[in-house]
Amino acid sequence: MTPQQPAQATPKPVDRAELDQLVRGEHGHPHAVLGPHPHEGAVTVRVLRPLASSVTVCGEWGETPLDHEHEGVWVGVLPVAEVPAYSLSVSYEGEPWDSDDPYRFLPTLGEMDLHLINEGRHEQLWTVLGAHVHHYETPSGTVSGTSFAVWAPSARGVRVKADFNSWDGREHPMRQLGTSGVWELFVPDAGNGTSYKFAVLGPDGQWRDKADPMAAWAEKPASTASRVFESSYTWGDDEWMTARAEKAAVQAPMSVYEVHLASWKKNYDQSMWSWEQMAEDLVAYVVDLGFTHVELMPVMQHPFGGSWGYHVTSYFAPDARFGDPDGFRLLVDRLHQAGVGVILDWVPGHFATDEWALARFDGTPLYEDPNPQRGWHKEWGSHIFNFGRREVRNFLYANAIYWCEEFHADGLRVDGVASMLYLDYSREEGEWTPNIHGGRENLEAVQFLQEMNATVYRRVPGVMTIAEESTSWPGVTRPTEHDGLGFGFKWNMGWMNDSLAYLANDPVHRSYHHGEMTFSLVYAFSENYVLPISHDEVVHGKGSLLRKMPGDRWQQLANLRAYLGYMWAHPGKQLLFMGVEIGQESEWAEARELDWWLLDHPEHRGVHSLVRDLNRTYADSAALWARDSSPEGFMWLDGNDAGRNTFSFVRRAPGEPDLVCVSNFSAVPHHGYRLALPATGEWDEVLNTDAETYTGSGVGNYGSVTAVDGEHAGQPAHADISVPPLATVWFRARS
Question: How far apart are CA 111 and CA 117, in angstroms?
Fold first, then answer.
């Protein structure tokens, strides 16, 4: 039996000023006042329940009623010599409510965690900050609850407001852990699905209710609270993950289907699909078309659907509009099991301005750069991260690791890299200040990108990072140890702009713009490139890709098919935004689904079938991808035939048959076209975008051509072929 307390035991005294500080929410260590404290051979317990009418402590010894001491603080002495297990029975003018006491538990963060956070080097930051369900085995049974931890170094106080305290944060003040800036509290009985926010008292004396920056789940907009989430998902993609770790993405096939999940398909009532629905239909659709990867526009929680996910409020929470985080795990898992990789759009350059989110989180510019010349993005109306602060860089690169490790993402496409690299991006003279060397480069952002890439590639074998970078910044895909930024790939925005500008011309004028199509090969091997026809090219008045093409309807469709054939053969990986594969006529709008009814029309089914055949032939032809970043993998056969708007080149890889691409962007066929070829023999026509099955005119070469001896255009052999109008034809050497 536990010894009884001495008869003279009195509550451990606490100064009234300290109690006032506790009640105001300004006590940095409420556990020093609340909870159990040995005193005079007994145990003093203090409880903060501002609205309670009575509080009783219950344990093996029986029950001990507490006395109201000061403005919601209750105190009493337990008749035991050592701190026991106990519970609270609290009445609010009604039936008593039983609960555990948060202030009898030790911190859930260790000294090493706090040290790494201080240093900005905690690579698994999400495992210690945020909300985490814990289950403790004790002599009196299992204690389950949630640990809450948040970084708010300038806060004078932080409270947890949640379902479990009727959103009255006064009952749950958090403690500050040393000089780390981290505030922590373990709340027993709080579990999966609990909605919560942090009430943060800034240095200006103002309380601000904030969503958790590290929340794993969020409420569905327009609600703004964070939610506790305990994953129960069991992955089934071990085979994929093992194989991925052994691959070099730059030497592998990669054709990417870019998807905005909210508008790919909708329910009949126009509501959004769930993760589970996507895991069935989207997976089957992508597999049927033969894409090797999907790229998902941001799935991180964002309040405004019209931002397409690029104004993020919860960087660690998958979008609650589609369901819970395990639903997203299911989608990724199903894609992997079907042999499809997953690339996520990631936005570390700027963040949403909503007052309940990251902005002025602890009452100061915490995540955003305090210098308005660096901390405010004029073009997008958003805050820019403070890349010069190590804890902010840690938050971001840990977030990159999080999506790769926790959700098995195979890659991150980093949005707006150019806006991060240049201090004068979207700024007029006088609106920016040069760096310490007098240049316009954002040295802190460069440091962050290098740190992020190096860490991600070290921790997650087989993953890739892709830069949306639109300038001539050198070494975007050069390793960081060689002073590069360290990305795996870079979007080739120059190729995209030049090729679309060429195609916008009527065929009779294209000969004057021939160089716009050949210029990309001047620099094609300077970086590891992705050829992007993304959402940005089919929105905001730009029209659909189909409607960019000149001519009548037949010519527009033929131009589109020819362009896709040219794109798939050009050095670099391919990315195609959803809808292009069905010949979408209307401009993309995030509020409605794609025009799937177009597939009822043969000419649109033809585009769809072509994309399927492109992907399958591409995947089977290593010559098209094994040497994407090497000049040895490409050779012009004739890049100067401007008069006939025709381009011909060969793609090759060691031990593989050569593949020749001939693209005719004129509106007339070229019969008897003498094509230079690298070898004699039979060359199979493996793809023809003018085939009748695609609703083309059917001009072709009856399945193959024969190359004969005879030098032509620097090659040892040639064949006289028929090149269809507005079409691309692929020939592969017969092995």
Answer: 10
Q: What angle do CA 397, 401, 407 make, to 5 degrees?
A: 145
pLDDT at position 8 is 67
Cα gap 490→483, rounded to integer Å: 16
CB contact at 8 A, 349 and 302: no
613 classed as catalytic: no
Q: In a 10 Å sphere around its CB, with 0-12 CB exposed, 13-18 middle and 19+ buried, how is residue 733 labelled?
A: buried
Averaged confidence pLDDT in the chain: 96
β-bridge mates for residue 605, sequence order:
none
Which band of pLDDT confidence, cut at 50, 70 and 90, is reported for residue 7? low
pLDDT reported for residue 93: 85
Whether 5 has a pLDDT exceeding 90, the answer reads: no
> Among residues of the chain, what percentage have pLDDT more than 90?
97
3-class SS of residue 649? strand
CA–CA dist 392, 364 (Å, integer): 14
Question: Does 468 participate in catalysis according to the annotation?
Answer: yes
pLDDT of residue 565: 98
CB atoms closer than 10 angstroms to residue 464: 29
Active-site residue, from 410, 468, 537, 658 = 468
**Residue 584 confidence (pLDDT):** 97
Percentages helix, strand, coil for the chain, rounded to the nearest 5?
30, 30, 40
What number is the average pLDDT over the span 28-48? Answer: 97
Place of tokens 């890659």: 411
Residues 3-29: b if buried by 16+ CB within 10 A, e if exposed: eebeeebebbebeeeebebbbebebbe
- Chain CA centroid to CA 89, Å: 45
Distances (CA, A) of 203 to 170, 180, 207, 436: 18, 17, 10, 31
pLDDT in tens, 83-142: 999 999 999 988 899 999 999 999 999 999 999 999 999 999 999 999 999 998 887 788
d(CA 346, CA 415): 6
Residue-level pLDDT at 579: 98
Q: Which of 415, 527, 658, 690 is catalytic?
A: 415
> Computed over its alpha carbons, how large is the radius of gyration of the chain?
31
CA distance linking residue 407 with residue 275, whole number of Å: 13
Distance of CA 513 to the CA centre of its chain: 37
Which residue, 712, 724, 572, 717, is CA-closest to 658? 717
Rounded CA separation 19/426 (Å):
52
Coil, strand or helix: which one is 529?
strand
Q: Name the residue among 570, 559, 554 with its Cα closest to residue 647.
A: 570
C-beta separation of 658 from 623 below 8 A: yes
Q: How confident is the model at residue 4 (pLDDT cuts 50, 70, 90)?
A: low
Q: What is the rounded average pLDDT of the residues 560-582?
A: 98
DSSP H/E element including 35 = strand 35-39
* Best CA proximity match to 701, nearest among 735, 669, 668, 676: 669
Q: Cβ of 50: how many Cβ atoms within 10 Å?
A: 12
What pLDDT score was predicted for residue 630? 96
Residues 6+ apart with CB under 8 A from 313: 211, 218, 224, 301, 302, 303, 351, 352, 354, 356, 357, 358
The residue to which tokens 């480069």 are assigned? 441
